[in-house]
Design goal:
Distance between the termini: 55 Å
Helix content: 25-40%
Number of strands: 14
Number of helices: 15
Structural class: alpha/beta
Shape: globular
Low-confidence stretches: 1-7
């Protein structure tokens, strides 16, 4: 049997493999992934007779061109490689935002181009909507998680994430992508349980380690075209030109953050404090075959994170009340809102209601109860949720 990855997945010394890739060509991507696997010490026999689950980012129904989801060419290339390497059973599994149902999964797979990619590759799509409670006594903020069945039952998991900006966690990559193993609307419950960013970040770091200790996991980032601005769904596509792989998700995220010019991503900070990754990209180990794209010096941040410098330094000023008054918060654009109710159903603390404006149903956020998780912005299919920033912030900054 090939060497187990379990004891290496959270090692700060675990290397990262970076390759330049400028197009979504399945054959090109397949060759890159094959070389990265070899450089990471993943032998050709590793996948033989194993049940392999590919966990992409399919946050909502978006075409590949929107850059909100894992590109189907990545699925096609990885699936072809896994079949070539002897994967016994290969399944694509994801719990997107909203209701975790067979009908919703069918729609997501089709719109995101995953259904066609799976058909071309001859692999399976998951429609099992059950889950298992997984105990995790080593968790700092959470001692157990409900995890969807295909992930819980896998031999090997491929965490095939999308590199994007994120309104809550600033960046979405390998660690954040594993939040998709929590079934459906239970993700909203996790937001309600951990309403502030430090605790929510700690929960995600716990969850990631739980999954990596439970199974052998390989992490791959689709960073050919990412998303900047109000990600993870409302931003704009941005060419990055890379594919990144590692056995350690925190190391991968650290490398990705450096590529985008981020130096204070909350999940990476939390992982470093736990000893799961180095403090800076300069301390990472990279495989000898790594080739780096040009770093981005003008990556557009989400509107919600520009306050971080001030509030990181003075989080408790005036008992924390100043933060509540001044921090960016979501608001509904009534001209764009169609009253579909997705934001109402996705709000973890039920602070969004319907109101009637000019005889039309619109959503309205009660600001006093809002926990600023930005789920409403993330899951609005019409980009009708925007971020309001207090003008005083520019002075305080």
């Amino acid at each position: 049997m090939a060497e187990s990855l379990l004891n290496q997945s959270i090692s700060p010394s675990s290397p990262v493999s970076v390759s330049v890739c400028d197009k979504y060509d399945a054959e090109t991507i397949k060759n890159i992934l094959k070389n990265q696997f070899s450089a990471l010490g993943i032998s050709e026999n590793y996948f033989k007779n194993k049940k392999v689950v590919i966990k992409p980012n399919l946050v909502m129904k978006k075409s590949a061109e929107a850059a909100a989801t894992t590109h189907p060419a990545m699925i096609e290339a990885l699936s072809s490689l896994l079949c070539e390497l002897g994967g016994h059973e290969i399944i694509i599994a994801e719990s997107p935002g909203g209701i975790y149902s067979e009908s919703n999964l069918k729609s997501i797979y089709k719109v995101c181009g995953i259904e066609e990619a799976a058909f071309k590759s001859g692999i399976s799509l998951n429609f099992d909507t059950g889950f298992k409670e997984i105990k995790y006594p080593d968790g700092i903020v959470s001692k157990s998680y409900n995890i969807i069945n295909p992930i819980a039952d896998a031999d090997i998991i491929i965490n095939l994430c999308k590199l994007k900006s994120h309104s809550l966690t600033k960046m979405s990559c390998a660690v954040k992508n594993l939040f998709g193993v929590i079934p459906g609307v239970q993700k909203f419950e996790m937001h309600a349980r951990f309403p502030n960013l430090p605790d929510f970040s700690a929960m995600l770091v716990d969850l990631c380690k739980c999954v990596c200790q439970m199974h052998e996991v390989i992490h791959i980032a689709d960073a050919i075209v990412g998303m900047e601005g109000n990600g993870p769904t409302g931003g704009n596509p941005r060419f990055i030109g890379a594919i990144i792989s590692s056995r350690n998700p925190y190391n991968l995220d650290l490398s990705a953050a450096d590529l985008l010019g981020f130096d204070d991503a909350p999940l990476i900070k939390c992982a470093y404090e736990r000893g799961f990754c180095p403090k800076s990209n300069a301390e990472l180990a990279f495989t000898e075959n790594s080739v780096f794209p040009q770093k981005i010096n003008d990556f557009v941040m989400p509107d919600s994170v520009h306050h971080k410098n001030f509030f990181t330094i003075f989080p408790d000023i005036m008992g924390g009340n100043l933060v509540k008054i001044l921090e960016p918060h979501p608001k509904i654009n009534y001209k764009t809102c169609v009253g579909c109710g997705d934001c109402v159903r996705s709000c973890p603390v039920h602070t969004i209601d319907f109101v009637t404006i000019k005889n039309k149903r619109k959503a309205k956020i009660k600001r006093d109860k809002c926990i600023k998780c930005f789920c409403c912005q993330e899951l609005c299919p019409h980009k009708a949720v925007y971020i309001v920033k207090n003008p005083i912030l520019s002075i305080l900054k």
